[in-house]
Write a structure and sequence with these properties.
This protein has a single domain, classed as Peptide deformylase (Peptide Deformylase, Alpha-Beta Complex), CATH 3.90.45.10. The strands form 2 sheets. The chain has a 6-stranded antiparallel β-sheet with strand order 1-2-3-6-7-9. The longest helix is centred in the N-terminal third of the chain and has 17 residues. 21% of the residues lie in helices and 29% in strands. By secondary structure, the chain is α+β, with helices and mostly antiparallel strands.
Length: 189
């Protein structure tokens, strides 16, 4: 597949709402695979289509030690609880900040076979899903900062270790410093 350029802040496409995908055709599948390759090349664990300049409701997620997931027309159905986490973004390189995220979420999307996927997710997976769905709605993690003055620059070395998946749960990854994940998936058509 191909590595796509990642759009960075302040590009206006990051503030635009993505459109629903009506047909899962060859172009959507190609975009999905290219996004997985792009996310992996950049060392991230999530990527939304508008981060590569495409205003379609498509996200890809790959948590450490897991296979990539492709979600079409994703939506958060329900959120519960709140927690503070340190978060960063491939579209805002070199910075992190503390944001409030849900303890768990109910999530729904389509997969590449047009099957509905329903997930109840917590910890890192819930955080990534919220982060990426926000992207599709033109919202950046900076909009959730606990305090705007808390957005802090990090060195290239810190940034590299912050976005590299596969670290121990107590080490920082690209979205959290201390949370692991668990989930239950229910597949239905």
């Amino acid at each position: 597949m191909a590595i796509l350029p990642i759009i960075t802040f302040p590009d206006k496409v990051l503030r635009r709402k993505a459109r629903k995908i009506k047909t899962i055709d060859r172009s959507i599948k190609r975009l999905s695979y290219d996004m997985v390759d792009t996310m992996n090349d950049a060392g991230g664990i999530g990527l939304a289509a508008n981060q590569v300049g495409v205003l379609k409701r498509l996200i890809v997620v790959q948590l450490p030690e897991e296979e990539p997931r492709i979600y079409i027309n994703p939506e958060i159905l329900y959120r519960e609880g709140s927690r503070m986490v340190e978060e960063g973004c491939l579209s805002v390189p070199g910075f992190v900040g503390n944001v409030e995220r849900s303890i768990w979420v109910k999530f729904r999307a389509l997969n590449l076979e047009s099957k509905t996927i329903r997930i109840k997710a917590d910890s890192l997976l819930a955080q990534v899903l919220e982060h990426e769905v926000d992207h599709l709605n033109g919202i950046l993690y900076m909009d959730h900062l606990a305090e705007h003055e808390k957005l802090r620059p990090i060195s290239p070395e810190e940034y590299s270790s912050a976005i590299r998946p596969g670290q121990e749960p107590d080490q920082r990854d690209d979205l959290t410093t201390f949370h692991t994940h668990s989930e239950s998936e229910i597949h239905s058509s």
